[in-house]
Amino acid sequence: MTHSVSQKTGWLVTLSGTGINLALGVLYTWSVIKAAIPVEWGWTAAQKSDPYAIACFVFAIAMIPAGRLQDRIGPRWVATIGGVAVALGCIIAGLAGSSYIGFVIGFGLFGGIGIGFGYAAATPAAVKWFPASQTGMIAGLVVAGFGLASVYIAPTAQALLGAYGVSKTMVIFGIAFLVIVVTLAQFLRNPPAGYEPFDAKADQRPKTTAAAKPPVNMEWHQMIRTSNFWMLWTMYVFGAAAGLMVIGSAANMSKAALGPSAFVAVAVLAVGNAGGRVLAGVVSDIIGRQLTLFFAFLMQSVLVLIPIFYGDDSIALLFAVLMIGACYGANLALFPSATKDHFGLKSFGLNYGVMFTAWGVGGLILPRIAGMAKDITGKEDLAFYIASGLMVCGALLALVNLAMTRGKFSKKPGQRSKKSRTVLPSHHVAGA
What we know:
mainly alpha; Growth Hormone, Chain: A; globular; 432 residues; 16 helices
């Protein structure tokens, strides 16, 4: 396959993956749907958070079998299954009426499975077509679609909810996403066996006679025995928990400042979410994944406190929501890139599926705490303080992980010698 043809194919796969994520990002519009649930349904604040929290958790778990299938049968069929499942989930929730269980099964279970399968197919397929020097940028572009979805879905949902109510809106979303995701899925494909992406930067570097270092390609069971994996996984939990808690509460927490236009906060957050994914991906290709994560965590530790102290100030609130979205979005570009950097491409789909369980754990815990806190105190302040603390811990872990990847504190699995403690060859260390 010629360079020009492979580039065109790679960009087609990338744009198709971005389009799929633009549909699957309905997950981030749950705060708009939640705010429209009628009082007469009798749901508690915690129950209103449950379909979203369960969808996040199931999404993450579904990434594991979806990643395995993506590696084995290719992304097209995996994304197609995802489109059918998320459509079915929205329709089930829509037909369930006021049933809490119906929404949990529909949006939470089937929706989570569908989003997981679609998401698992898009990013690995795209990054495999491009060299390591572009991993962050390509991953950022694909996942930006997921973050950006609320820009159009939030106002669309607001209009549909006003005209048709919650139930019919969910059915309409289901039909629309079935058509969009299944159609775009047909353009996804992995590179042929033996494909090596052209790297202009590598081609410009001086040639050496030294033997090239073999690529690192770990299976998931090898990956989870490394200290790097658990450091990254823990950071991912922290980053996901804080970001998803704000995303799930954005519309409600903005009511005091924005009134009926609270859905604008969801759209603003989506812009930040998408922009952060692309920017973080590009920056991390230059300065490294861990250093980029450090700055993102540190910024978010301060930003998540703004809604507590300036919740009535529309400008301050929208600024905070925009930047929180950007810091959270950085995670979704950086962690798949770091997974590829550290553990290779051979089993990337499955490996990132295992890594992504951290996102599900974070999404399950803190949004639920926020809902419970509101039921008890009438406010969600406690959850925001917890989020800030998690971000500080995440920033510290990013610094430790940076030192580990430079060979200061870690060693390969099964290696006991203190003289050789590098986790990866230098050309696989993020930012090297």
